[in-house]
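We emphasize that the prediction below concerns an isolated chain of 109 residues; any contacts that depend on oligomerization or on bound cofactors are therefore not represented. The input was used exactly as deposited, without trimming of termini.
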Amino acid sequence: MAWLFLLIAGLLEIVWATALKFSNGFTRLTPTIVALTTAWASFWFLSLAIRKIPIGTAYAVWVGIGAVGVAIVGIFWFKEPRDFWRLFFIGLIVIGVVGLKLVARDEGL
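Result of the prediction step, given as a token string:
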């Protein structure tokens, strides 16, 4: 269950970061509310996950899911660059997150 909470926290991080972009510096009400609400929810699910998963592992996976997710959103939604090196380093983050999950020794598996 802890890993499910961590996945939800990471996915919510993608939502709040994207909503933050749409909030235009907190000047647009609806995206601002979405950003703040999903940020709170993301932190809450992260707090549930770290009851069972070591904090270093959980935080790295949470940030990794968010970073890769937001980078993908940026590429497809905001037409950001998708050159080789950008995709290569995004791939390294994915490898790191998967590696952390594979070597995790905790009750949350």
